[in-house]
Amino acid sequence: MEDKILIAKRVAQELNSGDLVNLGIGLPTLVASYLPKDTDVYFQSENGIIGMSAVPGAGLEDDDLTDAGGIFIGALPGACSLDSCMSFSLIRGGHLDLTVLGGLQVDEKGALANWMVPGKMVPGMGGGMDLTTGAKRVIVAMTHAAKGASKIVKTCTLPLTSVRRVNLVVTDLAVIEPTEEGLVLKETAPGITVDQVIAATEAKLIIPAQVPEMNIA
Amino acid sequence: MNKAISTTQAVEMIPDGASLMIGGFMGVGSPRRIIEELVRQGRKHLTVIANDSARPDVAIGKLIDAKAVDRLIASHIGTNPETQRQMIAGELKVDLCPQGSLAERIRSGGAGLGGALTPTGFGTVAAEGKTVIQVDGKDFLLEKPLTADFALLGARRADYRGNLDYSLTARNFNPIMALAGKIVIAEPNEIVPVGVIPPDVVITPHVLVDYMIERRQTNGR
After folding, report:
1. Contacts of B89 in chain A (CB under 8 A)
2. How far apart are the two ends of chain A, measured CA to CA in Å?
3. Nearest residue on chain A to B173, judged by CA atoms?
């Protein structure tokens, strides 16, 4: 299975019916495609809608209906439009149950860096800082390493997105839960051993007696 | 009072060096005809306050392409490589601000508030130069209000008075900016008789709208 699909499938298991959910651009967007059966969530797009869906068919695009990346979307029955203050009041005010975001680094304190590489990439934080700071749960969906370097680090060297501790990190190798005590290894990816995860991780990991394998269909 | 004017007249009111709030998100909901006229009339040294600069040759991206902007206050420029190029070359000053904070700064400016206290950005580079205020033991950044000489809005419909409604995700920053521009110019897709937009459907009240752009002239009509 492709790494991205594995990550998306595992993250999708964290969504509960009735949740208001915001998916970041890129890998996190894939999560919507792997929702478990009978899981019925409301997807928010921070540019101003609750109830976004895929465009229901070719030729049905609306110039005034896109996601935050400017990609055409559809709207489900019951969808509602929001101005930017309402949209971010939902995000910042604790009304958003879950956000899934991409990551460049997560450190031992559970802090996320995902918006800037000084001197290389300065796209702006967009809604990422508000989402990371304000959502009830923050799940980081990212590959475990980039160009051989672990993205789970002792201390983030890239500019932080928020000082808030994220709730869960899902990678192609592991599920890791940042806690007050440190990063706890909760699950390994299919066919990956605990030792392999430790070897691929710069940060110190807390290893419980039992570390189950991800249950991915 | 008839508030309808042409795009030419609207842009003639806007001098070089003006500060402009421009609604829209990746071009969706932006007043595209006004933007094109700003480029056509060659306005320069503008300050633009907007969520983003869209893409090259799209909406606000056209102002960037024309080098009409000296300073951009936005939350995201990642989709416009030309904006990034001008920023790195020192031709364009860009102030990046978290999207929710940008919205509240504009709202504060329009609502007579001294700013917004937000936890967003605390402890990050977005906090640089900003005052930290503790409220009940929790740290917040003071995000100061923003106003502008002009607010340029994209709307779905205006009625003859200037009441506005919006379409789906084209709403975004438009209704907030309607409060924060000294002169507010709306570019509706359609102008309709008073009453066609029922009171409960009006998002931006007519008292905020100074001018609206008349319908696009088409061949023969």
Report:
1. none
2. 10
3. A84
Give the ipTM of the model, two decimals please: 0.96
Cβ atoms of B70 and B48 within 8 Å: the answer is no
CA B5 → CA A135, B42, B78, B195, B211, distances in Å? 44, 19, 35, 21, 7
Per-residue pLDDT of A13-68, as tens digits, reads 999 999 999 999 889 999 999 998 888 999 999 999 999 999 999 999 999 999 99
- Domains of chain B with CATH codes: 4-114+145-213 (3.40.1080.10)
Active site residues of A: 46
- Supply the pLDDT for residue A217: 78
* Interchain contact, A81 vs B27, CB within 8 Å: no
In CATH, what number is assigned to the domain containing residue A24?
A: 3.40.1080.10
Residues of chain B found within 8 Å of residue A160, distances taken between Cβ atoms? 123-125
Nearest to B103 among A63, A67, A88 (CB): A88
Cβ of A125 and B122 within 8 Å? no
Residue with tokens 């590959």: A143
Query: For the segment B116-130, what is each residue's pLDDT rounded down to a tens digit?
Result: 999 999 999 999 999
> Can you give the residue range of the structural domain that contains A83?
3-206
- B9-41, pLDDT tens digit by residue? 999 999 999 999 999 999 999 999 999 999 999
**Number of structural domains, chain A?**
1
